[in-house]
Design brief:
single chain
Length: 272
């Protein structure tokens, strides 16, 4: 076999092995949620690290995103005399799309890099090997609490992001643009949520889409960060590489999965 074919074959096998190890880690981390012992203290600590400490950046992101949406849309809607629909546009954009995606990207940048750096440092200093020696499963102790905390906290951060974004739109619509009173703005927000339909009569379709996405994104961020952190090699330089790969890979996966998840949810909700 020619050399280039051998190199291609080895590279393809390595990529397939990486995907296999990634999904194996994901399966084990989710399975250990229901296995004893359950490290509740580690879970609470990670919820604080992932959720509470990310609140500031999520608030800023949501506020200014909603303000920019309202400002840009007011320019276009004024041309048609339809500025009263600013609330509809801002709420639909934030709840369905921008809220989950922006919250996911912010958490990937802040939390994903931190998890990768922390686990990578433990790997290169052989602390993870020490856990194995003591009979503690590193995945159950280190990965599962981080994954579960991400699954819990990212939807909560997304709800806060959505609400703050809609409030930011209200500030611009009633204060800067001055064309939409606050009462009318919030009425159009509620009308938009109601217009998109309900599941089981009471659950808005927008909420289903807006909360399913961050749940998936939370799993992607935490599992990707843990995978690169647990497989770090090469000392401190390897820790830096693992951190960079985590942020880049998580961001790309969020954007790709977002499209297919949107397509799937639109198809499912259309028949619900």
């Amino acid at each position: 076999m020619p050399d280039f074919l051998q190199r291609f074959n080895a590279s393809a096998k390595a990529k397939v092995l990486t995907v296999q190890e990634y999904f194996t880690l994901a399966w084990k981390s989710l399975r250990f949620i229901f296995a004893r012992p359950f490290y509740a203290q580690d879970l609470v600590q990670q919820m604080d690290e992932i959720g509470v400490k990310s609140l500031g950046i999520v608030l800023l992101t949501g506020l200014f995103t909603g303000m920019v949406l309202a400002l840009q849309s007011s320019i276009q809607l004024r041309t048609f005399g339809a500025t009263m629909y600013i609330g509809r546009l801002v709420s639909a954009s934030m709840i369905r799309e921008l809220g989950p995606v922006l919250a996911g990207l912010m958490v990937a940048g802040r939390v994903g890099s931190g998890i990768a750096a922390q686990l990578g440092s433990m790997r290169v200093t052989e602390q993870i090997d020490a856990l194995n020696t003591l009979g503690t499963d590193p995945i159950k102790k280190l990965v599962t609490p981080r994954v579960l905390a991400s699954l819990i906290m990212l939807p909560i951060l997304t709800v806060i992001n959505d609400l703050v974004g809609i409030i930011g739109g209200n500030i611009i619509a009633s204060g800067v643009v001055g064309a939409v009173p606050t009462r009318l703005y919030w009425r159009t927000v509620l009308e938009q949520i109601a217009a998109d339909g309900f599941v089981f009569t009471y659950v808005p379709n927008d909420f289903i889409m807006g909360l399913t996405k961050p749940l998936v994104f939370g799993g992607i961020i935490s599992i990707t960060a843990c995978y690169f952190g647990m497989n770090t090699t090469g000392g401190t330089e390897g820790v830096g590489q693992a951190t960079t790969r985590t942020v880049v890979t998580s961001s790309i996966l969020i954007l790709i999965v977002d499209y297919f998840l949107t397509q799937l949810l639109l198809s499912v909700l259309a028949y619900a």
